[in-house]
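Supplementary Methods, section 5.1.

A reviewer requested that the exact input to the structure prediction be made available. We therefore reproduce it here, unchanged from the version used in the analyses.
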Amino acid sequence: MEQSSQPKTWSWLLLFTTSGTLICCAIPITLVSLGMGATVASMAATAPWLVALSMHKGWVFGLSVGLIALSAWSVYRPGRACPIDPEVAAACARADKWNRRFIWFSAVMWSIGFLAAFALPGLQFD
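The structure derived from this sequence is encoded token-by-token as follows.
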């Protein structure tokens, strides 16, 4: 039973850290690009920790991609199997399906955040 609760913990931690990449970098850059700089200033005044998070975005993205890789290994590793008991096996299969969804959703969120934080600011439109 403990084996089925461990991936659930990884999934929530993974979702939390990849959401941090969007909050620190992607959302503010998108808002500024849309001409809503005052909104970003208001966010920074309301939640000053966003500024500190943005200043260390390399660490935020590095930690979150490491967690994505670790959780992907945890879910997709060879030899991983659900128990034989039918009830526990059904719960394990359900948890496994949701964990895979969390991993892919987190990878997409991370990619959007990475694009907004690192790739788009480097582009210059004339």
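Confidence is low (pLDDT under 50) at residues 1-7. These observations are discussed further in the main text.
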